[in-house]
Design goal:
Layout lengths: L5 E2 L6 H12 L9 H4 L8 E3 L2 E3 L7 H6 L8 H4 L4 H9 L16 H14 L3 H13 L19 E4 L5 E4 L20 E2 L1 H12 L3 E2 L2 E2 L3 H8 L15 E3 L4 E3 L13 E5 L5 E5 L4 E5 L3 E2 L3 H15 L4
Helix pairs in contact: 1-6, 5-6
């Protein structure tokens, strides 16, 4: 049913980018601000090279935190942090893996630092900011921070493909990828429904407005949803796709995304779910699944082709 609850996985990631752009719209920060301007503990952070540790040519920016060009490593100290703040400050002590902005690696370390910036300027925990500023106003009443709050009758189990080709189902717990603390997982913690994610996508398709409420400026939505990785190669999932700010853009649709038009943006998750917004045809595609194994690319492309073909062409 459209009210059944799936693990949203990495579809959670863009929420921190939207939260940051809300602060940009309010004039509290800029995307190209140095992170150290807002978190002084990042001052003096070094880059690890073959010749030792050196100051970066260009220090880490807020934009780098959101486009996966940050170079922040996942370490034991970041994993063992007990709060989002603790994780961000632990990241500040770690040498960068490369010059910020020079290489892309998908992950969530920069997103946790960004979430701490949201906490600093909002004066509330990151999860409370999401509930107060995004989920509540949008009417996303069936989006949950933890599996224990999901009604059992509407919780969709995960299905795993075994080596013998058969499938088994199991109830999953909260996402713990790369983190060990009791805080909300910025990079993959949400559980949600197709109805709630439709409201989220519709707000973005509308240029930052939904139900008469403006959440973001149109300029901020453009920043969020268009390529933000410059000339860095292989900076997205699949050929023709490049990362924006926690979303990715189908710059040259092909393969799985061939049914979309150029400039479509979206986000998927490791459970196999996808969301895409095609701004040219004003179409929202949402497919939710909780699977481990199987050909998920085939499932995604079949869904997109079938849905696109069912929409009358003007």
């Amino acid at each position: 049913e459209t009210t059944d609850v799936f693990w949203a996985a990495s579809i959670t990631k863009p929420f921190v980018a939207v939260a940051i752009m809300m602060l940009v719209d309010e004039g509290k920060l800029q995307l190209d601000d140095l992170v150290e301007k807002h978190i002084p503990e990042f001052k003096g952070q070094k880059v690890k090279t073959a010749n030792g540790l050196h100051p970066p040519k260009k220090p880490l920016t807020i934009r780098n935190l959101l486009n996966h060009l940050d170079g922040l490593p996942v370490t034991g100290t970041t994993r063992s942090a007990k709060t989002i703040k603790g994780r961000a400050l632990a990241s500040a002590k770690n040498p960068l893996m490369w010059e910020p902005g020079s290489k892309w690696k998908y992950g969530g370390e920069g997103l946790h630092v960004a979430a701490y910036i949201v906490e600093k300027y909002s004066g509330m925990p990151y999860s409370k900011f999401l509930k107060t500023r995004i989920l509540g106003p949008l009417g996303m009443e069936n989006t949950y921070f933890t599996i224990k709050n999901v009604p059992k009758s509407r919780s969709v189990p995960t299905h795993r493909k075994l080596k013998n080709g058969k499938w088994e189902s199991f109830e999953r717990g909260d996402f713990g990828g790369g983190r060990g603390g009791p805080y909300f997982a910025v990079d993959g913690g949400f559980f949600s429904t197709v109805e709630d994610l439709f409201r989220w996508c519709q707000m973005l398709l509308n240029g930052g407005e939904f139900g008469g409420v403006r959440y973001l400026s149109e300029k901020s939505v453009r920043e969020l949803t268009h390529k933000q990785t410059g000339d860095v190669k292989n900076a997205g999932h699949g050929p023709g796709n490049f990362h924006a700010l926690a979303f990715q853009e189908a710059v040259e649709p092909q393969g799985v995304t061939a049914a979309l038009t150029k400039g479509s943006f979206g986000k998927g998750g490791s459970g196999g779910s996808i969301t895409w917004v095609d701004t040219s045809t004003k179409t929202i595609y949402i497919m939710l699944q909780n699977v481990s194994g199987g050909d998920r690319d085939l499932t995604s492309s079949t869904f997109l082709y079938t849905a696109a073909a069912a929409i009358p062409q003007k």
